[in-house]
Amino acid sequence: MLSLRVEVAIRNGAKHLAEGPHWDDVTQTLLYVDLTGHEMSLLCPKLDDNVTFVIPRKQGGLMVGLGRTISQLNWSSHAVTKIVEVDQGTNNRFNDGKCDAKGRLWAGERLINPLVPAGGNIFWWSLYSLDLHRTVRKQATNFHLSNGLAWTDDNRTMFFVDSPVRKVYAFDFDLEGGNISKKRVAIDMATAAPDIGGVPDGMNIDMEGKLWVAFYDGGVIGRFDPVTGKHLQTLKFPVTQVTSMCWGGRNHDELYVTSGRQGHPEEYFVQKEPLAGSVFRVTGSGYKGRAAHVYEG
């Protein structure tokens, strides 16, 4: 860790909330979204709803979370094709999303506006998977705010963040069948990281099987052992709203970290957090991750 360096990769790269970073191995480029700004990376025009994640599709184009839909985006024409819409008529949207090693897409929900009731299910949302035939399945439910996803190297365990309860859950994972079972708490931040403020947000995993968790309103990323539940290390950032991260670079030894710029008047950010909304690059950590999977359908 002696050569650890945190630098700005894209200054103020989001007007509101940078999220969902994905390193594209094919093009060696970073993709991410400006969630509430309805924008994706820096190259795509505005979309017509909250865009929550972006994942390359093996056959071409991109898969995006767009409101309560999973949609396909044609990069050249910017045409959007809705693949599936869940829980119509509710005050929800998709949030974080990633693909497993078989190329299925997994994404969870959250409430759009916590102040607006949602038919009695105000705090209970679900985790879905989209298989290669574009069939959507509700895999688990009764979550408050779905966030980061990660899988172990042997694909036998999947991890999932529920932000407001400040917990990382683990599931037994069936790679071939695309099923999860035996939900349990892997990390409870109340005991593992009581001194870190904010809530756990995006998440990733390194080659040693340790989880990296961003803390929104906490200004840090924490590294945790999901077997023991212990907090191992903390990376601090010059912004409060740290949202997510992904491994990138040719050797997957660079950590790209997104951040937000919302909830305060612009004067606050100018005076207190001028780098809010930036994308940061962490090098020299001594750790590596794996290439992110793409959608195979």
Radius of gyration over C-alpha positions, nearest whole angstrom: 18 Å
Named at the architecture level, the CATH assignment is 6 Propeller
CATH structural class: Mainly Beta
- Quantity of strands, as a count: 23
| Number of continuous helical runs | 2
Strand order of the largest sheet: 1-23-22-21
Q: Strand count, sense and closure of the main sheet? A: 4 strands, antiparallel
Q: What is the overall shape?
A: globular
Identify the CATH homologous superfamily: TolB, C-terminal domain
Question: What fraction of residues sit in β-strands?
Answer: over 45%
Structural class: mainly beta
- Helix share bin: under 10%
Binding site for substrate: 93, 95
Family: Belongs to the SMP-30/CGR1 family.
Protein name: Regucalcin
Subcellular location: Cytoplasm
Structural overview:
With 297 residues, this protein is mostly beta strands. The protein has a single domain, classed as 6 Propeller (Neuraminidase), CATH 2.120.10.30. 3% of the residues lie in helices and 48% in strands. It contains 2 helices and 23 strands. The chain has helices at 189-192, 266-271; strands at 5-10, 18-24, 29-34, 39-40, 51-56, 62-66, 69-73, 80-85, 92-99, 105-111, 125-130, 136-143, 146-151, 157-162, 167-174, 179-188, 199-205, 211-216, 220-224, 231-236, 242-248, 254-259, 279-283. The protein has a 4-stranded antiparallel beta sheet with strand order 1-23-22-21, with no helix packed on it. It has a 4-stranded antiparallel beta sheet with strand order 5-6-7-8, with no helix packed on it. A hairpin with a 5-residue loop joins strand 9 and strand 10.
